[in-house]
Amino acid sequence: FSTTVKFRTMLDTTMxxxxxxxxxxxxxxxxxILISNSGVLGQLAEKLKMDAYKTLTxxxxxxxxxxxxxxVKVEPFTxxxxxxxxxxxxWSGFDQTLGYVLNMDVPTSELGAGMGAVSGLLSQLNSKAGxxxxxxxxxKADVLIGGTVSKPxxxxxxxxxxxxxxxxxxxx
Length: 172
Known about the structure:
By secondary structure, this protein is α+β, with helices and mostly antiparallel strands. Helix content is 16%, strand content 47%. Strand 7 (84-93) and strand 8 (98-107) form a beta hairpin. It is elongated and about 75 Å long. The two termini are 38 Å apart.
């Protein structure tokens, strides 16, 4: 990885930075970084029932950030997560608190048993009502990450069906 950082801070009597006075900005660029054994990724994989999300490889990611009000605030950036895309934004507090949102487009083909049940219901509806309602190819979801670095919390909110247009308000 490579990074540039510019900042200002007050120093205490022992010449240590006073973190809540730290202000500045920076940029981080990564090349082929593997993240594994992450509490956040583990919870995400469990909630989506997709083991592929237990690890994450970041290739050629460019992240801009600011130091302000005792937090590192991350500007939105987009990554690939397997066949999904996620736009990430939020902050990490110097006190180890987290506040991130991942806006994801998840292919329904990867949702497994839950999507199979939806497809079965649509098939029954189509045969009884003479319609041709199809399941979408992607589902939009927000992943809300909170808690702390050592005890993260992950909440998943489905925003409806995405890329096919016709079912955008169907929900999951």
